[in-house]
Design a protein that fits this description.
The protein is built from 14 helices and 13 strands. By secondary structure, the protein is α+β, with helices and mostly antiparallel strands. Helix 4 (about 90-120) packs antiparallel against helix 5.
């Protein structure tokens, strides 16, 4: 096990960054779209030139000259092409407008799907997602049909985004300075205005690539890496929110579950007989499983990486989580009797049953439940999912809320938790990366 001490963000630097972003948003709001386009062109070309040099220096340090020279050539060539094309067809206006337009169309369709599903399952958020989906579709159509003329609309939306994002950063800075998150009776949550949905959705894949690169370079000497804040008044954690990273199966965008004590509680699609559309729609199911065996299953069998964020909740806050969990299990869940248990009860050998529930019950002493009532009865991949369930369990714990602007993805939840971990004076004090099953049972 490797333990690393991490310095928290300095609140006043966060405050300064928020001020710069706010000023940038205000300036962009008042600037003509032509000036914004020129500034964007200048920024993109500058980034390409600098990135090419950075890649060259990195490649030279690793004795990979050809790779470095090729990176410079590609980056600088793209920069010159953009400069040339911008005089012809205003490329810097067209490309962002088309990309954002297409993403907005997809997001609008997803939000309308969420709206319909919420109505059918009597889940909250139907009106909000319906209105949001309509405007996303309208915005996307405008950008795709006429990307140059409507670039000014994109610039306007970007300026508002920067202003709202700055407000979120101000909230982080004030919470750190005045220690509001440390109140033992705090149950109110602060909602974060998150990064764009597309960036959050692909975050697990980018994190997997980063971990794999570290493994290839031999930088990871332990299967368990613990990062702890240097300055915190807490010396233990009593809850861990775990984000799973994988590129395989229906969970390629990640998965989220919660560990309390030695038990992991996870909502998902564990009953394979009730799964439809490749795991996108299913009868909701829920498991309670011992933590260490579950981690070994995730790392060794499913070939995942797991990032756990440990928090020290007050007794009042933790009780709200456990009470909500117990009420959910008592009122909305029914135990599932596995094929293995049926066989044992009838005096037969259950060793040949290899469906997921039988394996969990037989090999990992897991308890499996079917969700038979309530809002989580029907699993729906883009809103009634593992992230929504975890966020709901923690809704009275004082842990920050996931952004109202984003579809609830594991990547978005990871970003929110990682931000809390790096901020000063929060209850999220530990970040544990489970890479291999080796050392995962080492005491922290």
């Amino acid at each position: 096990m490797t333990v690393i001490k991490i310095k928290h963000k300095i609140p006043w630097i966060t405050f300064l960054g928020a001020t710069l972003i706010l000023l940038g948003g205000i300036v962009m709001f008042f600037l003509p779209s032509e000036v914004v386009e020129f500034a964007l062109l200048f920024a993109v070309i500058g980034i390409l030139f600098v990135y090419g040099i950075v890649r060259l220096v990195q490649a030279v340090s690793e004795n990979k000259w050809v790779e470095g020279i090729l990176a410079v050539y590609v980056c600088w060539t793209i920069a010159w092409i953009l400069m040339y094309l911008d005089y012809k067809i205003e490329t810097v206006a067209v490309l962002p407008s088309l990309i954002v337009g297409i993403v907005s169309l997809l997001l609008g369709i997803l939000r309308l799907m969420i709206c319909v599903n919420s109505i059918l399952n009597r889940f909250r958020g139907a009106v909000r997602n319906g209105i949001s989906g309509f405007f996303c579709l309208l915005f996307g159509i405008l950008l795709v049909i006429n990307p140059i003329q409507n670039f000014s609309i994109l610039a306007l939306v970007a300026s508002f985004y920067m202003i709202f994002y700055a407000v979120t950063m101000y909230g982080d800075a004030f919470a750190a300075i005045f220690q509001t998150d440390l109140n033992a009776n705090r149950r109110k949550r602060r909602t974060h205005f998150a990064a764009p949905n597309l960036l959050n959705a692909i975050k697990p894949s980018s994190m997997i690539s980063e971990i794999n690169q570290q493994i290839e370079r031999g930088k990871l000497k332990s299967g368990k890496i613990v990062e702890e804040k240097e300055q915190t008044q807490f010396d233990h954690t009593n809850i861990e929110i775990m984000v799973h990273l994988t590129t395989q199966g229906p969970n390629k965008f990640g998965h989220v579950d919660i560990a309390i004590g030695d038990t992991v509680y996870s909502y998902g699609t564990y009953d394979e007989s009730k799964v439809k559309f490749m795991g996108f729609v299913a009868q909701g199911s829920f498991i309670a499983i011992p933590k260490l065996p579950y981690l070994r299953y995730c790392l060794d069998v499913q070939k995942k990486y797991v990032i756990g964020f440990g928090a020290c909740l007050s007794d009042v806050q933790l009780k709200t989580v456990t009470d909500r969990l117990e009420t959910f299990m008592a009122n909305d869940c029914e135990p599932i009797v596995s094929e293995y248990e049926h066989a044992v009860k009838e005096g037969r050998d259950g060793a040949d049953y290899n469906d997921r529930i039988s394996v969990f019950v037989r090999d990992y002493k897991c308890k499996v439940y079917s969700v038979v009532s309530g809002p989580y009865k029907r699993y729906f991949g883009i809103n009634i999912n593992c992230v929504q369930f975890a966020d709901w369990l923690l809704s009275d714990s004082g842990i920050d809320a996931i952004s109202f602007s984003g579809i609830r993805t594991p990547g978005a939840y990871y970003s929110m938790l990682n931000n809390m971990f790096h901020r000063k004076n929060t209850r999220v004090i530990r970040k544990t990366s489970y890479i291999f099953s080796k050392d995962i049972d080492a005491q922290e």
